[in-house]
User: What shape does this take?
Amino acid sequence: MAVLHILSNPDAAASCLASMADGDALLILGDGAFALANLVPPERSGVIAQDALDRGIALSEGVDRLSYANFVEWVVAYRSSVSWT
Assistant: This one.
């Protein structure tokens, strides 16, 4: 079963990525956007675009740019989620 990993703390990025399995997705929001500078995004990954822009973070290639409406869509699409705070 695929899991949605919600990353809001950049210090948790390494642990988050290490725990991801095939088919899992990564959704980055809030201060988690700071992790984009040092992370190779998994195949299915997205960031709340406004959160990245508010923090002056360039949006990475391979990362979907999401709105808060998209955030809700992603949460609904996965049976379970893990928050990395």
User: Anything to note?
Assistant: The CA atoms of residues 12 and 20 lie 13 Å apart. The chain has a mean pLDDT of 95.
